[in-house]
Design a protein that fits this description.
76% helix
C-alpha cells in the first residue's frame, strides 16, 4: 500500500478518535452527561462513532484517488491518440498517388 495513503488513513483515524472521544467523554467529565450511563455502553458508542467517521474518511480518500486515476487514464488515452497520429504518414500532395 502507498506510504502516503497509510499516513493519511492513520492521521484521519487518530483525528476521528480524538474528536469523537472529546465529544462523547467530555460532557461526562464536566458533569453535563448522565453519571449513571454504563461505561461499556459509552465505550461501544465511542467505537461505533469512530468506526463510522473513519469509514467515511476512507471512502472520501478512495473517491479522490479514483478521480485522480480516471484523470490519469484520460491523459494516457489522449497521449496514445497523439502518438498514433504522429506515426501516421501525412497526406500531402507528395504522398498521394497520381490520378490515373
Amino acid at each position: 500500500m502507498d506510504p502516503d495513503l497509510l499516513l493519511i488513513f492513520g492521521s484521519l483515524g487518530l483525528t476521528a478518535f480524538g474528536v469523537t472521544a472529546i465529544a462523547v467523554i467530555g460532557p461526562r467529565l464536566f458533569g453535563r452527561g448522565s453519571s449513571q450511563e454504563d461505561p461499556e455502553r459509552l465505550l461501544e458508542s465511542l467505537r461505533e462513532e469512530v468506526r463510522a467517521t473513519v469509514q467515511d474518511e476512507i471512502a472520501q480518500a478512495l473517491e479522490h484517488r479514483d478521480r485522480e486515476l480516471e484523470e490519469v487514464h484520460e491523459r494516457l488515452e489522449f497521449t496514445e491518440r497523439m502518438l498514433t497520429q504522429a506515426r501516421l504518414p501525412k497526406h500531402t500532395e507528395e504522398n498521394t498517388p497520381p490520378d490515373a
